Amino acid sequence: MRALRPRAVRRAWAGWKDGHPVPARVLSLAVTALALGLVVVALLLPNKQEQFRLAAFTRIPVEALLGAAVLIALPRRPRIAVAVFGGACLGVLTVLNLTDIEFNQYLGRSFNVILDWQLLDDARSYLADTLGGTVALLAAVGAVLLVLAVLAVMALAVVRVGNFLGRDKARSTRGLLLVSAVWMTCSTLNLQVSGVPLASEHTITMLKYHEQALRSTIRDEREFAKTARVDAFGDTPGSQLVPDLRGKDMIFTFIESYGRSAIEDPIEAPGVDRTLADSTQALAKAGFHAKSGWLTSATYGGGSWLGHSTTMSGLWIDNQNRYRTVTSGDHLTLTKAFQKTGAWDTVGVMPGVQKGWPEAKWYGLDKVYNAFQVGYEGPKFSWSTMPDQYALEAFQRLEHSKKRDKPLMGFVILTSSHQPWAPIPKMVPWDQLGDGSVFKGIEAAGTKPQDIITDPTRSREEYGKSVQYSVTALTQWLERYGNDNTVLVFLGDHQPIARVSGNHASRDVPISIVAKDPKVLGKISGWGWTDGLRPAHDAPVWKMSAFRDRFLTAYGSTPHPSKG
Question: Where are the transmembrane segments (predicted)?
Answer without folding.
Answer: 26-46, 52-73, 80-99, 135-163, 175-193
